[in-house]
Structure formats: C-alpha cells, structure tokens
Amino acid sequence: MKKFYWADFPSQTAFPIAKSGYPFIALSAFITAVFAVIGFKVFAIISMCVVLFICYFFRDPDRVIPNEEGGLISPADGRIVYSGDVESCDFLDGKPAYKISIFMSVFNVHVNRIPLSGVITKVLYFPGKFISANFDKASKENEHNAVFIKSCEGREICVVQIAGLIARRIICMVQAKEEVLKGQRFGMICFGSRLDVYLPGDFSCNVAIGDKVKTGTSILGYLQ
Q1: Is-above-0.70 flag for pTM?
Q2: Which domain range does residue 46 map to?
Q3: Which residues are designated catalytic?
Q4: What is the distance between the alpha carbons of residues 139 and 196, in angstroms, rounded to a whole number?
Q5: CA atoms within 13 A on the CB side of 15
Q6: Do both 84 and 189 map to the same domain?
Q7: pLDDT tens for residues 143-201?
Q8: How many domains does one find in the chain?
C-alpha cells in the first residue's frame, strides 16, 4: 500500500483560493457591483463571469503527497512540453542535466509546490521578455525566478518559474536557507506560464512529452 501525507495543513473551506487572488477578486467584484448599481445589466453579467473565472483560476486545492523514496513530484499542474538531457545547464554550474518543462494554461491550477524535500540554497530572479511560454526559448528569454534546492542526500535541483505571454507576476514565498518539505506550496505564476525543472543527469524520468501532470501528486521520476 502506498503511503501519503499532507505537506500543508488542509484548508477549512470547500473551495480554497490562493491569497494572491484576493486583490483581483475584490477589484473585479467591485466593478461588477458598480455596473449593477448604475443599471448596466449586460456589463454586470459579463463582469460577474469574469469574477467567477478569476476565482476558478486562483483555486488552490489541497493535495495529498505520495511518500515514495527518491520520488520527485511535479511542482506544477500542466502538460509536459519538454523532457530530455541538457549538455550544459547554466542553473547547475554548467553540468549536464535532465530538463523537464511543464506548460500551464489559464485553466490549470497555478499554485506551485516543492518537488523535493531539502534546503533552499538560493533564489535568483531574472527580468526578461513575455513571449508565449509554450516556446522552448521562453526558458532563457522570459522573466523567470530560479529556486535552488539541495536534498538531505546532497542532490541539487533547480526549479524555474517562467512568466508567459499573459503572465505578469511571479510569486515566490521561499528564501535562501529555508528548510522545505516535498509538496509544500512555495509560489505561483499569474495567468498562464511555464515551469522548468533541472535535475542531475542520472535522473530516471517517469513522464513523456504530452503527458498531463498535477502538482503534488504526479511523480516525474526518481533520483538515483
């Protein structure tokens, strides 16, 4: 029988919403109320639909984490758009690495979770462009935020949050020297984006291009 655990305390609501979404929801709800008060019914209905979509986008469902030794869980919901070896990885001191890229559409959950328990060694932010995140060149050219994690066994990985065509805000809630637990929430990217994971070259991958994964529950593969 597989073992599971909660990385974060389960929410006390039936439809949990990420706190980052509260300002967007409040603003859109206020605009809806204004349209309703002044009698613009059509605009009020359209605005209400926008409010509901924003609530849906910022949903933050609880996820139970599979406790498999060496198993690396997906840090994001979405579709695998790249899975393969990289000869020289800038994020891992030029060493060979295995790269997995996950594209998140506006319909995916955008809360990101820690893929591997360990310690945050550093967090680096890079300003950049806002081209469509499903293109591979977005990994280097777009605005991105790199989170470096070192496991208890000394294995190092890097998780990179990448802004997309619509995304204009990367949220990261962890910092250097902080201990983190696999499956723990660590941030999100607003309105469509991409997330890359750079792993040691001997990583045993469990996913392929085109596969759909869920943050916290899908196992991307295993560290040897």
Answers
A1: yes
A2: 19-57
A3: 193
A4: 7
A5: 7
A6: yes
A7: 889 999 999 888 999 999 998 776 567 899 999 999 999 999 999 988 768 899 999 98
A8: 2
